[in-house]
Amino acid sequence: MTDAPAETSALVLFSGGQDSTTCLFWALERFDRVEALGFRYGQRHAVELEQATAIARDLDVPFVVRDLGPALSGGSALTGQGDVDAPHALDPDLPASFVPGRNAVFLTLASAHAYTRGIHDVVGGMCQTDYSGYPDCRRVFVDAMQTSLTLAMGRDLRLHTPLMYLDKAQTWKLAADLPDANGLDAFETVRLRSHTDYDGDRATRNAWGYGTLGNADYARGDTPRLTTPGGCRTTPPLLTTQHARSPTESGRRAVRSGAPGGSVWSTHARPAGSAYQPSLR
Q1: Which of 19, 138, 243, 249 has minimal Cβ neighbours within 10 Å of its Cβ?
Q2: Taking the C-alpha atoms of 66, 71, 75 and 81 in order, what is their torsion angle to the nearest 10 degrees?
Q3: CA distances from residue 128 to 84, 100, 166, 167, 172 in whole angstroms, order as listed
């Protein structure tokens, strides 16, 4: 008698933004059971959580939102007032939208939540390619967190960042190639139902989704930059027929790090031919 294969499960960090929605569909394609976790931390674009709730409901994905109160407030224009594109008050090399410690907090709480749910795989939308200087979007940070959290939990933990080496055009392409889930088209869900600007505008519809962004790029008539669930800023491509569904081969790479009781492998998508260059800034 052959034992049935064990059920695979994953927890997705889900903000309701374009990148985390792409990651949610990515996880649904690869894992038998998928759950999602979001955070309310005083972000001025909290409408993203409303979109996340609706998307998770229609995908039949259990979704929990944790309220962090003022824990991350005071260090960013994103949780207060001011121009999110201005230099950060505490570090002129970073944009004012940088929230200190956010991804460290998110990954720690997500890992604790995953532990209680019997889940060893956590998926996040951190992206080093378009990270705009955000230190907690770097691959070296995610790998360090994976090792630390594995040690802290005393069991294997795998952090998957499928967008890590993708630029925005490649992320759109990934969304277009992902299969439907529970009757929802992945690409159109990402484009029209997720939320992507810091101002929370759901009235202005563009080819890339909803929002006016209201930043200096938009005011100049340049292509505006968008947000990702890891707090990264990215530039949307022009949506043309070349971004419609067509076969693609996503380069993926398993990354090994030490852990008690065995090895931990996490998936970081990498375009074919790209080279990883760790940056410690």
Answers
A1: 249
A2: 60
A3: 20, 17, 8, 9, 16
User: Which residues make beta-bridge pairs with 9?
Assistant: 33
Q: What is the DSSP string of 46-85?
A: THHHHHHHHHHHHHT--EEEEE-TTTTTTS-GGGSSS-TT
**3-state class of 10 per DSSP?**
strand
Summarised one tens digit per residue, pLDDT across range 126-161 is 998 865 678 888 899 999 999 999 999 999 999 999
What length is written for the chain?
281
Residue whose entry in the numeric block shows the structure tokens 């949610």: 24
Q: What is the pTM of this model?
A: 0.76
For 238-258, what is each residue's pLDDT tens digit?
A: 343 233 333 233 333 232 233
- Which burial class, exposed, middle or buried, applies to 96 when counting CB atoms under 10 A from its CB (0-12, 13-18, 19+)? buried
Write out 178-238 in H/E/C secondary structure.
CCCECCECHHHHHHHHCCCCCCCCCCCEECCEECCCCCHHHHHCCCCCEECCCCCEECCCC
Q: How high is the pLDDT of residue 92?
A: 65
pLDDT of residue 22: 98
Angle at 163 between CA 162 and CA 168, to 5 degrees: 155
HSE on the CB side for 201, CA within 13 Å? 15
∠ CA 37-39-41, rounded to 5° = 175
CB atoms within 10 A of CB 9: 17
In whole angstroms, what is the distance from residue 11 CA to residue 29 CA? 13
Cα gap 205→88, rounded to integer Å: 29
Determine how many CB atoms are found less than 10 A away from the CB of residue 223: 14
For residue 171, how many other CB atoms are within 10 A of its CB? Answer: 26
